[in-house]
Amino acid sequence: MSRLFLLAVSALVLIPALRAADWPQFRGPTASGVSAEKGLPTKWDAKTGIAWKLEMPGPGTSSPVFIGDRIFITCYTGYNVPGKAKGEQADLRRHLLSLNRKTGKILWNKEVESKLPELELIRDDHGYASSTPAADAERVYCFFGKSGLVAFDYAGKQLWQADAGGRLDPHGWGSAASPILYGDLVIVNGSIESESLYAFDKKTGKEKWKAKGIIEAWNTPVVVKTKDGKDELIVPIKTKILALNPTTGEQLWTCNTDIGWYMVPSVVAHDGIVYAIGGRSGTAALAVKTGGTGDVTKTHRLWTGTKGSNVSSPVFHDKHVYFANDSQGIAYCLEAATGKAVYEERLPRAGTVYASSLMADGKIYYVTRDGRTFVVAAKPEYELLATNDLRDGGIFHATPVAADGKLFLRSDKFLYCLEK
Fold first, then answer.
1. Domain boundaries in the chain?
2. Cα–Cα distance for residue pair 178/163, rounded to 1 Å
3. Rounded distance, CA 38 to CA 31, Å?
4. Fewest C-beta in 10 Å: which of 33, 61, 302, 308?
5. How large is the greatest C-alpha to C-alpha distance in the chain, in angstroms?
6. Is the peptide bond before 117 cis (omega within 30 degrees of 0)?
7. Which residues pair with 265 in a beta bridge?
8. How far is it, in rounded angstroms, from Cα 177 to Cα 131?
9. What are the residues facing 224 on neighbouring strands?
């Protein structure tokens, strides 16, 4: 048996195969925040319903991703860690952790050195590890803002590092957008770093295209299919939604949103229609048909509305759009065809909601920053199924994930695996 053959077999062992239950990027395989998992928990607290709980080496607001027998998640250490002395920027490190999917045990912890200077303070303790990784069957891709996009193999070896710009965020919020995968490309929204959108070769990190004019967009782009089966890369920016060819970066169409704020929520789409929310006042939601050319505001914009959210992203389910307002603690259900509010109900004593919505097993999960999770029935009649409390677990900014019949919540201190 040749040494080359043994090396090839060893490499295959280190590369988990993709499977239907994987959750390889922010908001899942379809970037929609919708999971097909069944048997998920509805009720839990600090003492019950926890399958395992991992104390993280450092804080972060990224969600975990699930590939094969692995979980990948990021965090940071050394500087501006909540509850500790501020420290020195020279000690700031980003980390990618590989975990055992069944037990949560850390398999390896790889550090990435930061490009300095960084923001001295990031608002609301978002920190320096906000972007959820993306993963395929061979590599894991992590975006760390001005420190760049970094690719690792499944053994934890750093393969390449690519630059998406080094501008410091003038708003003090830091980076937020997560990388996505499309064919042989890994696409990153570098709006905060360089007002640009980038596509890099997955194998080499070489820049394949760059689109400029991505203004005040903290959201993760989404690839959407048009009615005729073509792919469009959708990214909301201040006052507009942009659609690009994901292969070339060529701009296909634009649509005015009438939203005068920066855009944080990612869009959701169904049957060739994009639904976007954002802003704090005035127009805060809209629907637009894909497949247009040029400025489609008059021809393809279907409706606008005043109910939205400035931070958290929505879900689409059965002709309705659901989300929780980030600051008002109100759960909304909009009729997708018209934008009309079917219900708007205040979640009892809800705090701020930064995490995006998750829809799974007939339920919608809304996670507040203080660690409470409101479980609402996924139907156009408001029904609060449960209110769960993990307020001893730190600050919860990360979007929840459903995998393996379990629910995963991440705070700045712990990763929780919750079971029914």
1. 22-219
2. 14
3. 19
4. 302
5. 70
6. yes
7. none
8. 6
9. 232
CA pair distance 207, 402, nearest whole angstrom: 33
CA-CA-CA-CA dihedral for 63, 28, 285, 179, to nearest 10 = 70
Output the six-digit token pair for 282.
């005035």
How far apart CA 211 and CA 111 sit, in angstroms, is 30
> How far is the CA of 136 from the CAs of 23, 151, 265, 387, in angstroms?
10, 11, 24, 35
Supply φ then ψ for residue 32, to 5 degrees.
Answer: -110, -10
Residue 190's Cα: distance from chain center in Å?
15
Sign of the Cα torsion 386, 387, 390, 392 reads negative
Distance CA(167)–CA(122), nearest Å, equals 14
Q: How far is it, in rounded angstroms, from Cα 253 to Cα 3? A: 53
Query: Which of 135, 126, 127 has its CA nearest to residue 97?
Result: 135
pLDDT tens sequence for the chain (420 residues): 444 444 343 444 445 555 558 999 999 999 999 999 999 999 999 999 999 999 999 999 999 999 999 999 999 999 999 989 999 999 999 999 999 999 999 999 999 999 999 999 898 888 999 999 999 999 999 999 999 999 999 999 999 999 999 887 767 888 989 999 999 999 999 999 999 999 999 999 999 999 999 999 999 999 999 999 999 999 999 999 999 999 999 999 999 999 999 999 999 999 999 999 999 889 999 999 999 999 999 999 999 999 999 999 999 999 999 999 999 999 999 999 999 999 999 999 888 999 999 999 999 999 999 999 999 999 999 999 999 999 999 999 999 999 999 999 999 999 999 999
Q: Identify the three-state secondary structure at position 119.
A: coil
**Among the listed residues 256, 361, 255, 253, the one whose alpha carbon sits nearest the alpha carbon of residue 315:** 361
| Cα–Cα distance measured from residue 80 to residue 94, given in angstroms and rounded to the nearest whole number | 12
Which H helix or E strand runs over 7? helix 3-14
CA 405 to chain centre: 20
d(CA 141, CA 149): 7
| Strand arrangement of the beta sheet that strand 320-324 belongs to | 315-317, 320-324, 330-335, 341-346
Q: Classify residue 391 by burial, with Cβ atoms within 10 Å: 0-12, 13-18, 19+.
A: middle
Name, in order, each residue with C-beta under 8 angstroms of 338's C-beta and a sequence gap of 6 or more. Answer: 303
At 260, list the tokens. Answer: 């005068």
The domain defined by 22-219 folds into Lipocalin (2.40.128)
